[in-house]
Amino acid sequence: MVTQSAMRGAAFVAAALLLGGCWDGASDTERTSVSSSGSGARLAGVSSPARVSSKSGEILILEEDGSVTAMDLDSEAGRDAFLVTEADLAQLNANLDLDFGRVAPLGRATPRRQTAQEKAIEDFAARTQPALPTWVAGTTVEPEMFIGAKIDTLGEGRNADLVEVTVNLRRGVDADIGFAYATCALAGWAKENKVAYGRHIRTLQDTRNGKLLVGSAFMLSDSRPLGLRLMETEDTLRECKTRGIPAA
């Protein structure tokens, strides 16, 4: 099998031969030709152009003296015959007056550019915030605010990772405290069930019998998902303890 560098070398050699044969402004004695030796392809000004051909997996090289050199295409010598160095390109530039100044050096890979989709995902991920809302300075909580919480699975089988957290709070409690209570309750449940993350889907709230009722849906995940609000179990539990919000 011909290596990538060998194929690239062959392309440059073929280009040199083609341009050399089509140069009307030079005589036969001035045309650039390619000769080959064990050290690889070299450019030289000779009286007769050389040719490179292949047949049945062999390379046949017509030497300057009229003799023919044969070698296997996949042999070390065969690969070397198609090797083109930067010095060869410089000589080709000088002989044919071509400008290779903008061509990247051989063997140096061009850095991969970020796709539009990858950039969009990166920008969206940068917008992710903790599920627990930021509280206004001076906000305080009392244990009597939190009446109870329950967690229901909204699906079965593969859909069992969608859950809803329903919490009851005393009348007059701020909605952010209600959502924080739901998030903390989920974190406590997630730790017991060995779940690492919960992505917030939606939150509804209502007032029943004078109490605040909050229902929040989360999509559970073992790996960090994309989302605007994300519950990380361990971090959330620590923050809930700091704020004095029950996690059960």
Could you please describe the fold and organization of this structure?
This protein has 2 domains: 4-96, no CATH class; 128-243, no CATH class. A hairpin with a 2-residue loop joins strand 9 and strand 10 (211-221). The relative contact order is 0.11. Mean pLDDT is 76; it is low at 1-51. It starts with a helix and ends in a 5-residue tail after the last helix. The protein has 6 helices and 11 strands. It has a 6-stranded mixed β-sheet. Helix 5 crosses helix 6 (233-243). 30% of the residues lie in helices and 29% in strands.
Inertia-based shape: rod-shaped
Main sheet summary: 6 strands, mixed
Q: Total number of helical segments?
A: 6
Name the average pLDDT.
Answer: 76
Poorly predicted residue ranges: 1-51
Rounded to an integer in angstroms, the radius of gyration calculated over CA atoms is: 36 Å
Q: What is the H-and-E element order?
A: HEEEEEHHHEEEHEEEH
Helical residue percent band: 25-40%
The assigned structural class equals alpha+beta
User: How many individual domains?
Assistant: 2
Give me the side-by-side strand order of the main sheet. Answer: 6-11-9-10-8-7
Number-wise, the strands total 11
Q: How much of the sequence is in beta strands?
A: 25-35%
The rounded distance between the terminal residues' Cα atoms is 65 Å
